[in-house]
Design brief:
7-stranded mixed sheet, 20 strands, single chain, FAD/NAD(P)-binding domain, alpha/beta, Guanine Nucleotide Dissociation Inhibitor, domain 1, Guanine Nucleotide Dissociation Inhibitor, domain 2, 14 helices
């Protein structure tokens, strides 16, 4: 313990594990500690007995649910975009060799009380029952523009400077209806609110293009992939990577106390009477509660079911986004479903999650629109958790704190936080121009 490290990472949540992997690959000397005796922190995966212990105390799970060890229930369920940032980080660090991914069967959007497949290309737009005949033609033109768009080729820009015009001005050119804009903005571009409409259109077009390219990648029903045996595999894969590059791991280290000098700069971490020296500390909000502020909370329901989500073409794995306007809310609601096809439950069992940004302390009432869509459930657990963001100046004290996980069921915002932290810690940018064919996933047979 009394060695000196470049960075000490506290907590083995996904963000912390990705960072310790990236920093170790960079040649930094990393010590990674966790007060828990398991990997994953907030983003761990639980078996049935652990799930019951967390939500129901000493009760035992009913036998008809199957054996405990066949369950891997993610506490922060998220899918990865096949061509998205997380996959690029996995390839950049060569972590893909530790993981097996499988394509997710379906991506859906809720509109006027019904569930529809999200159309993402000109061909799908023409087939989609989401839109009337004339709207389909307008949407087709929009999708063709996005598919052909290349940032470096002005011929594909049709005279528009997407860095100068807003997304709203860009969309107006296609005269799309409000409902169409709603599903494109929230279910394809994956914005969590409508502020994007007043931002430059470039980011919007790139996001829709990423969705369409990810969808084409494995020819599955969605642009998403998800690891076999659940997300608990990810922190462990990055932990292995860090160890390969000389990172040191210590689990079950109680009371990890961050030490500062008289100027308020971090100098080390003390646990069990020993202090490890370091230049920088990376951690989740629970380790430095006086340097974070609460910005909201997430409500979620975890459900065990014996059937897929209705109206999703019997998808064994699926995401359904319920845009805020459809529910008369200020934030979107997300449904996430996976099953025995990804080895996270016994055969015939499905695990579904409903999550949203909470406005009250009553998750049952807030999540009702999403839970109602699921149909009958065998078991349901409700909870809310607070969301924190750093409130200090990391340059002044050399502490780099991750943001709490949001309610979205995809990784884009999570990985952006990691890359932002990496740049602050190292002053460098991760090179994500990788050969995407290095990552493979199997589509549903």
């Amino acid at each position: 313990m009394d060695e000196e490290y470049d960075v000490i990472v506290l907590g083995t949540g996904l963000k912390e594990c990705i960072l310790s992997g990236l920093l170790s690959v960079d040649g930094l000397k990393v010590l990674h500690m966790d007060k828990n005796d398991y990997y994953g922190g907030e983003s761990s995966s639980l078996n049935l007995i652990q799930l019951w212990k967390r939500f129901r105390g000493n009760d035992k799970p009913p036998e008809e649910l199957g054996t405990s060890k066949e369950y891997n229930v993610d506490m922060i369920p998220k899918f990865a975009m096949a061509n998205g940032t997380l996959v690029r980080v996995l390839i950049h660090t060569d972590v893909t060799k530790y993981l097996n991914f499988k394509a997710v069967d379906g991506s859906f959007v809720y509109n006027k009380g019904k569930i529809y497949k999200v159309p993402a290309t000109d061909v799908e737009a023409l087939k989609s029952p989401l839109m009337g005949l004339f709207e389909k033609r307008r949407a087709r033109k929009f999708f063709l523009y996005v598919q052909d768009f290349e940032e470096t080729d002005p011929k594909t820009h049709e005279g528009m400077d997407l860095n100068k015009i807003t997304a709203k001005e860009f969309i107006a050119k296609y005269e799309l209806e409000a409902d169409t804009i709603d599903f494109i903005g929230h279910a394809l571009a994956l914005y969590t609110d409508d502020n994007y409409l007043n931002q430059p259109a470039m980011d919007f077009v790139k996001r829709v293009k990423l969705y369409a390219e990810s969808l084409a990648r494995f020819q599955a029903g969605s642009p998403y992939i998800y690891p076999m045996y659940g997300l608990g595999e990810l922190p462990q894969a990055f932990a292995r990577l860090s160890a390969v590059y000389g990172g040191t791991y210590m689990l079950n280290k109680p009371q990890c106390k961050v030490e500062f000098d008289e100027n308020g700069k971090v100098v080390g971490v003390t646990s069990e009477g020993e202090t490890a020296k370091c230049k920088k500390v990376v951690c989740d909000p629970s380790y430095l509660p006086d340097k974070v502020q609460k910005v909201g909370k997430v409500a979620r329901a975890i459900c065990i079911m014996s059937h897929p989500i209705p109206d999703t073409n019997d998808s064994h794995s699926a995401q359904v986004i319920l845009p805020q306007k459809q529910l008369g809310r200020k934030s979107d609601m997300y449904l996430f479903c996976c099953s025995y096809s990804h080895n996270v439950a016994p055969k015939g069992k499905y695990i579904a999650f409903v999550s949203t940004e909470a406005k009250t302390d009553d998750p049952q009432t807030e999540l009702k629109p999403g839970v109602d869509i699921l149909g009958p459930v065998d078991e349901i657990f409700y909870e809310t958790y607070d969301q924190f963001v750093p409130s200090h100046d990391s340059a002044a004290d050399n502490c780099f704190i991750s943001k709490s996980y949001d309610s979205t069921t995809h990784f884009e915002s999570t990985v952006m936080d990691v890359l932002d932290m990496y740049s602050k810690i190292t002053g460098k940018v991760v090179d994500l121009s990788v050969d995407l064919s290095a990552a493979s996933a199997t589509a549903e047979e």
